[in-house]
Design brief:
The complex is a heterotrimer of chains A (637), B (213) and C (254). In chain A, β4 and β5 form a beta hairpin. Helices cover 37% and strands 16% of the residues of chain A. Chain A is globular. The longest helix of chain A has 25 residues. With 254 residues, chain C is an alpha+beta fold. Chain C folds into 2 domains: 111 residues, Beta-grasp domain (Ubiquitin-like (UB roll), Roll); 129 residues, Orthogonal Bundle (Fumarate Reductase Iron-sulfur Protein, Chain B, domain 2). Helices cover 33% and strands 14% of the residues of chain C. The radius of gyration of chain C is 20 Å and the shape is elongated. The chains are: A alpha+beta (637), B mainly alpha (213), C alpha+beta (254). At the A-C interface, α3, α5, α6, α11 and α12 of A face α1, α2 and α3 of C.
C-alpha cells in the first residue's frame, strides 16, 4: 500500500497558503467544546499547548518531569535557523529549503521542508515578542552565526542556551494559559497507552509517577510531542528520561513508524570516559565556527597536543572539504572522526577522540572574544573533563544526538490513526536522513506554534466525534494491559538490573546500528537484541511497588519498549540497502567514502506497521518525488 | 487604601518599612554621635549641647515621637519577618555551611536587633527618664560610668550596633532597589565604615568618661 | 588521570511526604573520580537493587546542568560547594579518599519532600503562572528587528533569564525565600521593551503569589547568588524590589 501524504497541489511556494485556505475552520465559539490532549512539553508540546489554548480549545498537557520547563529541548545550545537574511549574505526561504533538503540527503518531503522554511521567519518574530533575549549587535539588531551545512549565517542564538530560552518562552506562554484555566497541566505523568475508539484517537492512559495510579484521560484529539528515541543507545546526549515509549506504544496500536534507522550522531560531544557513565554531553556545533578539528599525523605521538608542530597535524575536515571545512554537516563530520579513529589516529586515553582546537581563534580574536561567544560551553567542558580548553585543545567524539525517524505523519502532521497528531522530534517529517544544526528548534516551534493550530481545526471541523467517557471499554482494556505489564515487571525478580540490560542493548545498537552499518552486523545485532529481550523478561529485577514513586519501574517500562524498538531500527536499516545521511551502510559508499544513495530504489519513506510481538512488521512505502530540486550526490567539498 | 496595606504587608513591603526606618535610625545615630562627641570638649560643652537640644521644644518632641513610631514599626516588622522566616523552613538541614554571602552581621540581625531593643530601653531609663532638675546630664553620665559594669555593657552594645549597622545600611539600599554595579562596592565599603564609626565613636565614649572624668 | 576513591555516604531517606525520614549510611567503594555525584548514586542504586533494597530516589534528567531537575544539599551546600555547578556536573574529583558526604534534600515549607531526595517544586511554576510571561498570542508579532534592543539590556536580560528553576536559591537562603528566582524572571522581562507594558502587573502579581506559597522573606544574606549554579546576581532582586515598589506606588495596578 502506498501512503498518501495529502500534499496540496500547486506550486511549491503556494502550497501552504492554499492548504490553509482549504482547511475547514472551527468557529471560535465552538473551539471551547473540544478537548485536546498534548503529551510532552518540549518546544513542540509547549508551543502547541499554548497556541491551541489561545485559540480557545481546552487543553490537557502532560509531562514526565516535575515541571513543563524541564523537557530536553532545554539542552539545545547552538541556535535556531531562519531565512531572515538579516546579514545580507544571500539567504532566502528557497536557500534554507534547499540546504535542508540537501542536508537531509534528499529523503525528506519537499512540501514539508518548504513550509518549514517559510514559517522560520515568523518563529523568530514571535519569539522576540515573547521576550527571548537573543544575542544582538551593538546597534541593537539581532545577531546571527553560521552552522554546519550552510554557507550563510542564519542562526539566531541566545549565548549557548538557545534551546533553554526558546523553551522558557514557550513554557511562559503555556503558564499563562494554565493561569487562564485553558490548560490543565499534569506534570509527573507518563503516557503508557493510547486509547483508540472507532478508529479515532480519543484518549490516553498515563501513570501518575508519584502515586503510581494509572489514570485515564479522554479527548477529541491527541497530540504527541514526546521527542526522539536516541536513548535506545543507552549513552546519548538525550536526557535520562527521554524515551520512545509513547511513540512505540502508539506504533503498537497501529500507527506507522517511519525511517527508524535514521539517527543522527553529533560530531562534537565529550568522549566516553568509563563504565559508569550515564550519559554523554554535547558541545554545541557552533564551536566549529572557530574551532579547528585535527588529529596528529603520527598516532605514536603521545606528547601533549600543544607540543605537536603544525606540520605534524592533520586538519582532516579542512583538507577533505575545503569549501565547508570544519562546518561540514553533522553526519559527514562524525563519520570523518570515526574514520580517523579507526585508522588508529584517535587521541586521548581510549583513542576514541579528536582535537577541537581554539588556539588559532584565540590568537586571532583574543581570549575575551572567544569567551564571549563560547564561555559557558568552555566552562561546561572544563567541569566535566577537568581540562581548560583555553589552554589545551578540547577532545571530542561523535555521540547519538537526534533521531530523524519517528511516527509517520501526513502534511497535516496527522499519523495513520485519525485524530492522532505527532509533532517535533517524535515525527519523521522534515529532516530526511540527516538534520542540519539549528533546525530542530525551528521544526519543533513551527509544528507547535504555526502548523497544528490550523491542521487540528481542519480535522475537528470535519469529523464526527461522539460523546465519550473514560468508562468506555477501550479505556478499561488499556488500563488493564498497562497494569498487567507492570505487575509482570515487578514479579520477575531476576538478577540483572534494568540499567545493566539497557547498557548492553546500547552497546549492541552502537556497534552494529550506529555510525556505520553492514548487513552481517545488523543480522547479528538483531539476534542479540532478541536474545537480550528474552533475558529481560526472565531475569530483570525491578524493586519496589507499583503504587509508589518508583524510578526503577519507570525505567523498566521504557527499556522494555527500547528492547522491541531496537529491533525495528535494525529491520529498517537492513531494508534500506543504500547509504544516506545518518544511515551509512558500508556496502554503499563512493570512492571517497561518502554515503552513496540509491535514488532508483530507495527514494522513499519506509513506514512500518506493527503486526504482533514476534511477527515481521508490514512495510509501507511513501515515494518521495522531487519536483523542485535536483537529486545530486551531496558534496561539501 | 487596601492597596497600601497589601503593599506594605507584602514581603517586599515589610522590607521597605525595615529599610526606611532603619536608614532613619542610621541618620539618627550619626546625629546622636555628633552631639555626643562634645563630651571630648568637656562637661560644659556637653551640657550646652544638651541644653541646645532641649531648646528645640516641640520640634524635639516631634522627632522623639517619630523615632518612637519608627521603632515600633522596625521592631514589629522585624519580629514578624523573623517568625515568618523561621516558619518557612520547619526542618533544618543536618549540615549547613555558608557559601560566602552570609556574614556574622547578616546572620545575627534578628538577635542583635533584640539585644539593641533591650539596650535602648535601659539607655532611656538611664539618661532620658531621669530627674535632671538637680544635676546636669554630664554629671549623670560620669556618675553612671563610674560603674565598670555599665562601661562594659555600653561598649558591648556599641559593638553590637556596629554589626547591626554594617549589614543594615547596605541592605536598606538593596531593598530599596538601589543596587548598581558601579556603586555597590562603594556602598558596601560605606556600610563597613559606618559600622566602625558608630561602634568606635559611641564605644570609646564610656571608656573615655570612666577613665578621664 | 582516572583515580578511585572510597567514601562514606550519609543520605536522607524518607518513604513518603509526611513520614519521618532519617539518615542512612552507605559505603561507596572504588568510585572513579571521573564520574559525577549522580553517577555515583547510580552505582549505589545498582548495588541496592541487587541486594533487594529500595534504591535512593532523586530527581535528575538532562545531566548537563541546564534542565534544573536535579538538586540536593551536599555537605551543607546546595548542589555542592563547587561554584556555578549543578549536582549533575559535580564530579567526584572534588572529593578525597575517605571523605564523608552528607546528602540531603532541599528543605523548605514550600517544597514538600516526595521521597528521599526528590521534592515538589511546583511552587516555582505557580510563581511563573502568576505573571512570568509576556501576553502575546501566537501570530501577529512585528518583524523581529522592528524594535532594536541595546546590547547591554539584552545581555542583562539574558543573565537573568539563565535561571534554570532548580530551587537552589531557596535551599541556600537561610530564610527559604524565592526572591532570586522571582527576581530573575521579573528582571528578565522588565529589561526588555516587550516586557514593559505588563511590568507593573507582573511585579505585583508574582510577588503576591510568591508570598502566598510559604516562602520566607529576603534578608539580603546573599547566600542565593553565591550558591546559584547559574551565578545569577542579587542585582536582580534589587531590580525586582524597584519594579514592585514602582508598580505599587506609581501605577494603577493593584
Amino acid at each position: 500500500m502506498s501512503l498518501d501524504a495529502k500534499i496540496p497541489g500547486g506550486p511549491l511556494a503556494d502550497k501552504w497558503d492554499r492548504h490553509r485556505f482549504e482547511l475547514k475552520l472551527v468557529n471560535p465559539a465552538n473551539k471551547r467544546k473540544f478537548e485536546i490532549i498534548v503529551v510532552g512539553t518540549g518546544l513542540a508540546g509547549s508551543s502547541a499547548s499554548a497556541s491551541l489554548a489561545e485559540l480557545g480549545y481546552n487543553v490537557k498537557t502532560f509531562c514526565i518531569q516535575d515541571s513543563p520547563r524541564r523537557a530536553h529541548s532545554i539542552a539545545a545550545q547552538g541556535g535556531i535557523n531562519a531565512a531572515k537574511n538579516y546579514p545580507n549574505d544571500g539567504d532566502s526561504i528557497w536557500r534554507l529549503f534547499y540546504d535542508t533538503v540537501k542536508g537531509g540527503d534528499f529523503r525528506a518531503r519537499e512540501a514539508n521542508v518548504y513550509r518549514l522554511a517559510q514559517i522560520s521567519n515568523t518563529i523568530i518574530d514571535h519569539c522576540v515578542a515573547q521576550g527571548i533575549p537573543f544575542a544582538r549587535d551593538y546597534g541593537g539588531l539581532l545577531a546571527n552565526r553560521s552552522f554546519g551545512g550552510a554557507q550563510v549565517s542564519r542562526t539566531f542564538y541566545a549565548r549557548g542556551q538557545t534551546g533553554q530560552q526558546l523553551l522558557l518562552g514557550a513554557y511562559s506562554a503555556l503558564s499563562r494559559q494554565i493561569a487562564e484555566k485553558k490548560i490543565e497541566m499534569y506534570p509527573r505523568r507518563e503516557m503508557l497507552d493510547l486509547v483508540i475508539i472507532d478508529g479515532q484517537a480519543r484518549g490516553i492512559v498515563a501513570r501518575n509517577l508519584i502515586s503510581g495510579e494509572i489514570e485515564r484521560y479522554a479527548a477529541d484529539a491527541v497530540v504527541i510531542c514526546t521527542g526522539g528515541y536516541g536513548n535506545v543507545f543507552f549513552l546519548s546526549t538525550n536526557a535520562m528520561a527521554s524515551n520512545a515509549s509513547a511513540t512505540f506504544r502508539i506504533y503498537k496500536k497501529g500507527a506507522y513508524f517511519a525511517n527508524p534507522c535514521f539517527t543522527q550522531i553529533h560530531p562534537t560531544c565529550i568522549p566516553v570516559h568509563g563504565t559508569y557513565q550515564a550519559k554523554l554531553t554535547l558541545m554545541s556545533e557552533s564551536l566549529r565556527n572557530d574551532g579547528r578539528v585535527w588529529v596528529p599525523k603520527n598516532p605514536e605521538d603521545k606528547i601533549s597536543p600543544q607540543q605537536i608542530p603544525e606540520s605534524e597535524r592533520n586538519y582532516y575536515l579542512e583538507e577533505k572539504y575545503p569549501s565547508f571545512g570544519n562546518l561540514a554537516p553533522r553526519d559527514v563530520a562524525s563519520r570523518s572522526a570515526k574514520e580517523q579513529c579507526d585508522m588508529g589516529k584517535g587521541v586521548g586515553e581510549t583513542g576514541l577522540a579528536v582535537y577541537l582546537d581554539f588556539a588559532d581563534a584565540i590568537k586571532r580574536d583574543g581570549k575575551e572574544e572567544i569567551e564571549k561567544k563560547y564561555g559557558n560551553l568552555f566552562q561546561m567542558y572544563e567541569k566535566i573533563t577537568g581540562e581548560n580548553p583555553y589552554e589545551t585543545p578540547m577532545m571530542i567524539y561523535p555521540a547519538v544526538h537526534y533521531t530523524m525517524g519517528g511516527l509517520w505523519v501526513d502534511y497535516n502532521l496527522m499519523s495513520t490513526i485519525d485524530g492522532l497528531f505527532v509533532l517535533g522530534e517524535a515525527n519523521f517529517s522534515d529532516h530526511g536522513a540527516n538534520r542540519l544544526g539549528a533546525s530542530a528548534l525551528m521544526q519543533g516551534l513551527a509544528d507547535g506554534y504555526f502548523i497544528i493550530p490550523y491542521t487540528i481545526g481542519g480535522y475537528l471541523a470535519g469529523t464526527n466525534l461522539p460523546e465519550l467517557s473514560t468508562e468506555h471499554l477501550a479505556f478499561k482494556e488499556a488500563v488493564s494491559a498497562v497494569e498487567s505489564q507492570i505487575k509482570t515487571l515487578l514479579s520477575i525478580n531476576g538478577k540483572r538490573t534494568v540499567d545493566d540490560i539497557h547498557r548492553e542493548l546500547g552497546l549492541i545498537m552502537w556497534d552494529y546500528c550506529g555510525m556505520s552499518r553492514n548487513n552481517n552486523g545488523l543480522q547479528e545485532a538483531r539476534g542479540r537484541v532478541q536474545k537480550l529481550r528474552a533475558e529481560f523478561w526472565e531475569n530483570v529485577i525491578v524493586p519496589g511497588s507499583d503504587k509508589d514513586f518508583n524510578q526503577s519501574l519507570e525505567r523498566a517500562c521504557r527499556v522494555a519498549d527500547f528492547l522491541e524498538f531496537g529491533e525495528l531500527m535494525i529491520i529498517d536499516a537492513l531494508d534500506r540497502q543504500e547509504s544516506c545521511g545518518g544511515h551509512f551502510n558500508e556496502a554503499y559508499q563512493t570512492e571517497e567514502n561518502e554515503a552513496q544513495r540509491d535514488d532508483e530504489n530507495f527514494c522513499h519513506v519506509s513506514a512500518w506497521e506493527y503486526t504482533g510481538a514476534d511477527n515481521e512488521p508490514n512495510f509501507h512505502k511513501e515515494p518521495l518525488s522531487f519536483e523542485n530540486v535536483e537529486l545530486t550526490q551531496r558534496s561539501y567539498k | 487604601m487596601s492597596w497600601l496595606i497589601q503593599t506594605l504587608w507584602s514581603s517586599i513591603g515589610k522590607k521597605l518599612m525595615m529599610a526606611v526606618t532603619g536608614l532613619c535610625f542610621c541618620i539618627f545615630l550619626v546625629g546622636h554621635l555628633a552631639g555626643n562627641l562634645t563630651i571630648y570638649a568637656g562637661k560644659d560643652a556637653f551640657d550646652a549641647y544638651a541644653e541646645g537640644l532641649h531648646a528645640l521644644g516641640p520640634l524635639l518632641t516631634l522627632i522623639e515621637l517619630g523615632l518612637l513610631i519608627f521603632a515600633i514599626i522596625h521592631i514589629t516588622t522585624g519580629l514578624t519577618l523573623f517568625y515568618q522566616n523561621l516558619r518557612a523552613r520547619p526542618t533544618r538541614n543536618k549540615v549547613t555551611k555558608r557559601g560566602g554571602g552570609r556574614t556574622i552581621a547578616s546572620a545575627t540581625m534578628p538577635y542583635t536587633g533584640i539585644i539593641l531593643l533591650m539596650f535602648v530601653v535601659m539607655h532611656l531609663i538611664n539618661f532620658s527618664f531621669v530627674d535632671k532638675s538637680e544635676t546636669t546630664i554630664a554629671q549623670i553620665v560620669s556618675q553612671k560610668f563610674e560603674n565598670p559594669i555599665y562601661v562594659l555593657i555600653y561598649v558591648a552594645a556599641m559593638i553590637i550596633v556596629a554589626f547591626h549597622v554594617r549589614h543594615g545600611f547596605w541592605s536598606a539600599f538593596q531593598t530599596l532597589g538601589a543596587n548598581h554595579p558601579k556603586y555597590m562596592t562603594t556602598l558596601m565599603a560605606l556600610s563597613i565604615i559606618l559600622g566602625l564609626v558608630v561602634g568606635f565613636g559611641f564605644g570609646m565614649l564610656p571608656l573615655y568618661i570612666s577613665l578621664f572624668s | 588521570m582516572n583515580k578511585f576513591i572510597s567514601l562514606t555516604l550519609r543520605i536522607w531517606r524518607q518513604k513518603r511526604p509526611n513520614e519521618k525520614g532519617q539518615f542512612e549510611t552507605y559505603p561507596a567503594k572504588d568510585i572513579s573520580t571521573d564520574i559525577s555525584i549522580l553517577e555515583m548514586l547510580d552505582v549505589i542504586n545498582e548495588q541496592l537493587t541487587l541486594e533487594g533494597k529500595d534504591p535512593i530516589a532523586f530527581d535528575h534528567d538532562c545531566r548537563e546542568g541546564i534542565c534544573g531537575m536535579c538538586g540536593a544539599v551536599v555537605n551543607g551546600h546546595p548542589h555542592g560547594s563547587e561554584k556555578g555547578t549543578t549536582l549533575c556536573q559535580l564530579h567526584m574529583r572534588h572529593f578525597s579518599d575517605g571523605d564523608t558526604i552528607v546528602i540531603e534534600p532541599w528543605r523548605s515549607r514550600a517544597f514538600p519532600i516526595i521521597k528521599d531526595l526528590a521534592v515538589d517544586r511546583s511552587a516555582l511554576d505557580r510563581i511563573i503562572q502568576a505573571g512570568g510571561y509576556i501576553s502575546v498570542n501566537t501570530g501577529g508579532a512585528p518583524d523581529a528587528n522592528a524594535i532594536p534592543i541595546a546590547q547591554e539590556a539584552a545581555d542583562k536580560a539574558m543573565d537573568a533569564a539563565a535561571c534554570i528553576g532548580c530551587g537552589a536559591c531557596v535551599a541556600a537562603c537561610p530564610n527559604a525565600s524565592a526572591m532570586l528566582f522571582s527576581g530573575a524572571k521579573i528582571s528578565h522581562l522588565a529589561l526588555l521593551p516587550q516586557g514593559k507594558p505588563e511590568a507593573a502587573k507582573r511585579a505585583i502579581h508574582m510577588l503576591m503569589a510568591m508570598d502566598a506559597l510559604g516562602f520566607g522573606n529576603c534578608s539580603n544574606e546573599r547566600e542565593c547568588e553565591v550558591q546559584c549554579p547559574k551565578e545569577i546576581s542579587i542585582v536582580n532582586i534589587a531590580r525586582m524590589n524597584r519594579e514592585f515598589l514602582k508598580a505599587s506606588f506609581f501605577s494603577s495596578e493593584k
